[in-house]
Each structure stands twice: as structure tokens, then as C-alpha cells.
Specification:
The chain is of the alpha/beta class. The protein has 17 helices and 25 strands. Helix content is about 30%, strand content about 25%. It starts with about 35 loop residues before the first strand and ends with a helix. The structure holds 3,4-dihydroxybenzoic acid and magnesium ion. Magnesium ion binds next to loops.
């Protein structure tokens, strides 16, 4: 696993410039609006209360929801929690939850009011002015809206005396009240200025993926907004909510549509993340809070992109949403950089040579080589610190990968340390990345070295932005002195080396399970990529999940994969391999050429080809060629996919050659178990 990089604190997330009202009279649609405040519930994060608060502040949140249990278990007094929040620049936006209050017999109601008064005392000490009351699950409650409304009104009356507001939230599994519409009816019926609604996207969207009418709620009754995404799962809704919530953009809920409605109603309060997730609860709260903040900025950007016509009945949001610089178009992968050592370098360069690559350039000042073929550029970096080829200090490459028992083939270090994409505007790509909380990488520029803009991804991978198309900017290839072996031109190593392989098709990065969602959010939001493929498959040593994200043209694709659980002790402790896939128009010629140059293509079992025959009945000659050359196959409704792999090179990389036929969307994930078993088998042979 690569070391994760800490992200820089962000004190003021980017918002679009507030333009002056201009010369026209009357209110301008561009009139200054307050910026949307961002919040996070302490329940989203791991650690003691103070760890959570510090992480929230460092990630740039404006406020927090204090979850009752986080306070109950804390040794800090409510006053000192409030003081710490103030020191950290956080407002205490909500105290939550207050449970099982409404629609109970009188005696219990009196006890509930007493319980509430003690919580109001606590909130005064804490400095919190809004309490969340979630719809009751009490066995003593009755199905009586009038009683519920009356008791909530009595609560609001007591709260008002303390300057406190009561935000009523319908839990999706509430005993009698489980829809936002029902909670809104009760709030209206309760009719008290200190009684309003808390809307939680999970409770609303888990029941109805496309709710309507939220924009008709009175703005002054929308007391609080909690945001969470989730995958669509067919399961008990309480379990779904308590274990599987995700940050916005990481699941399948339409959060932009939901938030747009809430804002159209005139909501001006905080946008607050409330995500119960088993993994986030257990990971370092610092990076987790940054992931949450990044997802919120991306959500605000998505909502800001929704057009509001004066005639469509929807009001523009009253608050100013984050507006990172738009993502410039990406034209493809510029290069991939692998770190190698003395042991792995000959394996990696041997495989590249067999695949038809040519070592065309040597870095001016570092032990770094450029290998090229037909638009694919691979940089091999032997710098111990790694990441040194392109002007950074190489934090991403620090720390070795330990290859465990059973990896007789290639124990030398080899892994992907950097990805470079071609952007129509590299400077803007970098500004966008920073607005989305990417850590800028310091540049270590030597004489005559291109100063590329780069940021660190949460998984430690360095992400470079290179000029593409007619964008001006430094040419990273100028850092390399031609070796004379390529068809280099005056511009050093710019000329393509002709061969059967074309451009880089995709790069696959291994992700530990606890980093998976965060990495997805990072690559998707920073590079403006969309999900192109999702798969879960049973590999020999456990379940593997893979997701591919790409741009609209398909020229940039990043595949992420990882085991769902830490490997069992008995399984080989090999790090998940990463790979670089090169595109070709003739996979059979590519395989024959590579074999002719001595490459041992990863052997595929006979059973696989028998199964292919059964499933697809390919032409016998085609099947024979695939079998002979160890070429794997997949297809979807848009096209077909042929591919083959090398063995594992060094500790954890391999190369793949792929041919897309038609508009095939995936990247052969269905064959991953076959490939993983084959890699394992190949290792056994050399044990
Ligand atoms: O799962 C719960 O109990 C719970 C508590 C408070 C909330 O705001 C919520 O959405 C769920
Ligand atoms: Mg909630």
C-alpha cells in the first residue's frame, strides 16, 4: 500500500465570484448571496470527540452536528467542547438525536419534557441552538398525528424559552412517521415558530428515488438539512442506513436533484453530511473529513450547474454554491510512471521491449528512462525516493511494498507512482484539483526541466497535468535526452515509435478497501470522470471489487480494484497488482510479435477456452488463435474486447494489451478471476 498523503487544510472552500449588481435597478440575479455553509456530523468520523472536531476543522467545515453519544462518552465538559469548537472556527449547528418523544400518554409526555429540559441545559452549555428530534419508535407511542403535533408544539414552546429550535426528522423506519411528507404535515399542524423540519436525503431517497414537492415547503420551516448518499440495496432500511451510507456522489442517490429542490424552497442553513458508514467510522478522521468535504464541493458544483429559468417556477438558491474551475477537456493519458529497482527494472524493461517499446530517452538529471511506442509513454524511475522524473519530491512513491511469501517471481519493487493526463488547460486542471482539496505537490525543478503541475491523489499516486491539443505549456518530454534508438525529432523524444500498440487504454490502481470510495470521489471529481464499469467478482483469494471511471470520449480511463477484506492469513500475502493497458488494433499481431520477442504471455487455462466456446460459440479458427496466444475475451451490447497480459513484473505490476471492437464499454473485469488465478499459477511454477 502506498502511504496516504495528508491534505492541506482549507479554510475557505472556493465559491464563484460574487458579481456586483451592475447598473440596472431592482434586484439582480447576481446579487451577493451568503455562501453555503458546510457541516459534518461527528458520527461520520472515527476517534474521540476532539479528534473528530479537529479533523472537521482541518478539512474546512464551518460547523458540526454533535452526536449525543460522542458527547456522552467524552471526558470533556459541554463548555469545553463548545470552546474547542469556537477555537477551531466551528459552529455547533445541531445536537442530535433526541428520540422517542412524540405521541405518548400524558405521564410519559411529562417525563419526556423533563428529559428534554436536561438536554436543553446541555445545549446551552454547548452553545447549540437546534435539536434534532427523530420520529418515534417507542412502543408507547400511538398512531395519532394530532397528539404528536400537540406534544411537539409543547416541546417547541419550552425550547423557545431557551432560544432553541426543534427540527423534526422522519426516520425511514419510524413507527408511524416515516416519510418527509408526513413529518411536514405534523410540523404544520404543530404550528410553532420553533418547530421545523430536518430533511435527511437518506430517509427521503431510500423510500422514493425521485421525490417531488420539497420545493414547496416554507423556507422558514426548513431548519436543517442532512446529506448522505447510498448504494441501492434491497435490504432492511435501518441496516442500510446505519452501515452503508456514503458521502455524496459515492452511491446511487440523486443528490443533486434532491439538494436543488431543497435550495429552491429557499433553504439557507448548512449543508451537513450525516453518514453512518462502517469503514469511515474506522479510518483516520483527517483524510475521511477531507473526502467528505471534497464530495460536498463536487455536489455543490453539480447543483450549481442546474439551470434555473425565471419561468419554470423554481427559485434560484438563496445561497452561493461552491464553483471550482470547470474541468478542462482531457485528451488522453500522457504517460504512466512506474517506480522500479535493480531487481525489477530488467523484468519491466524486458517486457516493454518484447511488447515493442523502445527506450527512447534518458532523463537529464535523474535515473529515469522513457519508453515509447505509438502514443504510449512509460517512464521507469529508479530514483529511490521515486516520483523524481517529473519535477516533484515524489512523496507518492515513498515507502516500499513488501512482497510476501510465495512471490518468487519478482520481489523487486515495481508499482505505478504517477499518472499523467493531457489537458487542454493544465493550469486550470491544477486549480480545479486544488479547489477540490487535492494536495499540490512541490516541484523540484532542475535546469531545463519542465515544470509540470501535479497533485497527490488520496492513494498517494501523483497526478500530473500535461498540455494536450494546442494548449501551450512545458513539454515534459524535453526533460529526456534522446537515446538515439527512437525516431526522436528536434523536440527530443516527441516522435512516436511505430509499432502495433497505440495509446494507453487504461491504468488500473489497487485500492485498499477503506480508501476505495475516497479515491473514486477524488478521480471522478478532479478529472470530471464518470463511472464506466462496475464489477464484483470472486477471485481465488477473496471477493474483489472493481470500478472504472473515464471521460466521455473514453480517452482517459482509470480502473480501481481492491479486495473487500484483508486477506486471510493462509492466502499468499501478495499486494494487489496494478497494471497499465495499451491499446492495439490487432491484438493477435501484438501477441505474436511479443511472443516472437520472447515474452511469455500469461498462460490461460484450457477450461477457460472450453467455457468461451460454450458461451459464445466463436469461429473455431478464432477460438484456436485465442487459445494458442492466451488471449482473453469479453463482450457487451456495444462491442467486444480481446486482451492478454504479461506475468507479474517485480512486486506488483503487469502490462496488458487490449483491443476494443465497436464501442465496448468495460475493461474485461469478468476475466479478472481467470487472470488472477493464472498469475497465482505462474508464481507457483517458480516457487
Ligand atoms: O439511525 C439513527 O438512529 C439516526 C439518528 C439520527 C439521524 O439523523 C438519522 O438520520 C438516523
Ligand atoms: Mg438524519
Amino acid at each position: 500500500m502506498k502511504p496516504s498523503t495528508s491534505s492541506s487544510p482549507v479554510s475557505s472552500p472556493v465559491t464563484s465570484p460574487v458579481t456586483s449588481p451592475g447598473t440596472s435597478s431592482g434586484p439582480s440575479p447576481q446579487a451577493a448571496r451568503p455562501r453555503a455553509r458546510k457541516g459534518v456530523a461527528t458520527v461520520c468520523l472515527s476517534g474521540m470527540l476532539e479528534d473528530k472536531l479537529r479533523a472537521a476543522a482541518a478539512a474546512g467545515f464551518d460547523g458540526v452536528e454533535i452526536f449525543e453519544n460522542d458527547l456522552v462518552v467524552s471526558a470533556m465538559s459541554p463548555e469545553s467542547v463548545g470552546a474547542l469548537c469556537a477555537d477551531l472556527g466551528l459552529s455547533v449547528d445541531l445536537y442530535q438525536p433526541f428520540r422517542d418523544f412524540e405521541a405518548v400518554p400524558d405521564a410519559l409526555h411529562a417525563a419526556n419534557l423533563r428529559r428534554a429540559e436536561r438536554k436543553f441545559d446541555l445545549m446551552e452549555r454547548l452553545g447549540a441552538d437546534t435539536v434534532l428530534v427523530c420520529s418515534t419508535l417507542s412502543p408507547h407511542a400511538t398512531d395519532d398525528d394530532g397528539l404528536a403535533a400537540g406534544q411537539l408544539r409543547a416541546l417547541a414552546e419550552r425550547a423557545a424559552a431557551r432560544g432553541i429550535r426543534v427540527a423534526y426528522e422522519a426516520l425511514a423506519w419510524g413507527r408511524f412517521v416515516n416519510s418527509w411528507e408526513h413529518s411536514w404535515q405534523i410540523v404544520r399542524r404543530g404550528d410553532h415558530p420553533n418547530l421545523g423540519l430536518c430533511l435527511d436525503s437518506f430517509h427521503v431517497l431510500s423510500r422514493d428515488p425521485a421525490p417531488t414537492g420539497i420545493d414547496t415547503v416554507d423556507a422558514d420551516k426548513l431548519f436543517f438539512l442532512q446529506l448522505a448518499d447510498a448504494p441501492r440495496l434491497d435490504m432492511d432500511v435501518l441496516q442500510w442506513s446505519r452501515h452503508h451510507r456514503l458521502f455524496p456522489g459515492q452511491g446511487s442517490f440523486d443528490l443533486p436533484g434532491f439538494l436543488a429542490q431543497v435550495l429552491a424552497a429557499g433553504y439557507e442553513g448548512p449543508l451537513s453530511l450525516e453518514v453512518f458508514n462502517d469503514i469511515f467510522r474506522q479510518t483516520d478522521p483527517g483524510p475521511a473529513a477531507v473526502d467528505g468535504m471534497r464530495s460536498l464541493v463536487a455536489l455543490e458544483e453539480a447543483v450549481a450547474g442546474i439551470e434555473y429559468e425565471p419561468s419554470d417556477g423554481r427559485a434560484r438558491p438563496r445561497i452561493e454554491l461552491a464553483a471550482p474551475p470547470p474541468a478542462p477537456e482531457l485528451l488522453g493519458h500522457a504517460f504512466v510512471e512506474l517506480t522500479v529497482d535493480d531487481e525489477s527494472a530488467p523484468q519491466v524493461s524486458g517486457a516493454l521491449t518484447a511488447l515493442g517499446f523502445v527506450h527512447t530517452g534518458r532523463h537529464r538529471s535523474k535515473p529515469v528512462e522513457l519508453w515509447q511506442q505509438g502514443g504510449s509513454n512509460v517512464v521507469l524511475n529508479r530514483d529511490d525516493r521515486g516520483g523524481g522524473s517529473t519535477g516533484t519530491d515524489g512523496q507518492g512513491a515513498a515507502g516500499g511494498v513488501s512482497a510476501g511469501a510465495g512471490t518468487r517471481t519478482g520481489t523487486g519493487r515495481a508499482e505505478v507512482v504517477a499518472l499523467a493526463v493531457e489537458s487542454r488547460d493544465p493550469e486550470q486542471s491544477a486549480r480545479r484539483a486544488e479547489a477540490l482539496l487535492a494536495t499540490p505537490l512541490p516541484r523540484r525543478r532542475g535546469p531545463e526541466e519542465a515544470e509540470l503541475t501535479a497533485v497527490a491523489a488520496p492513494d498517494g499516486t501523483q497526478l500530473f497535468f500535461c498540455p494536450g491539443g494546442d494548449a501551450s505549456g512545458p513539454d515534459w518530454r524535453a526533460d529526456f535526452v534522446p537515446t538515439g534508438t527512437g525516431t526522436g525529432t528536434d523536440h527530443g523524444t516527441e516522435g512516436a515509435v511505430a509499432g502495433v500498440l497505440g495509446r494507453i487504454d487504461h491504468v488500473a490502481l489497487a485500492q485498499p478497501n477503506d480508501q476505495f470510495a475516497g479515491s473514486m470521489t477524488f478521480y471522478q471529481s478532479v478529472l470530471d470522470l464518470r463511472e464506466r464499469d462496475f464489477a464484483e467478482y470472486a477471485a481465488p483469494f477473496g471477493l474483489v471489487r472493481s470500478r472504472t471511471v473515464g471521460n466521455a470520449s473514453g480517452e482517459v480511463r482509470i480502473a480501481m480494484h481492491g479486495a473487500l477484506l484483508r486477506r486471510g492469513g493462509w492466502a499468499p500475502s501478495v499486494p494487489d497488482p496494478e497494471h497499465v493497458a495499451f491499446a492495439t488494433d490487432d491484438v493477435f499481431a501484438a501477441a505474436r510479435n511479443a511472443r516472437g520477442r520472447g515474452l511469455e504471455i500469461l498462460p490461460v487455462t484450457d477450461n477457460y477456452y472450453d467455457d468461451l466456446d460454450a458461451r459464445y460459440a466463436p469461429e473455431p479458427a478464432l477460438l484456436r488463435d485465442m487459445r494458442e496466444l492466451n488471449i482473453l475475451y469479453d463482450r457487451d451490447e456495444h462491442g467486444a474486447f480481446f486482451h492478454f497480459c504479461t506475468g507479474i513484473l517485480g512486486s506488483r505490476v503487469f502490462f496488458e494489451v487490449v483491443q476494443r471492437v465497436g464501442d465496448y464499454r468495460g475493461d474485461g473485469a469478468v476475466n479478472a478471476p481467470v487472470r488472477m488465478a493464472a498469475h497465482r499459477q505462474a508464481r507457483n511454477r517458480t516457487d
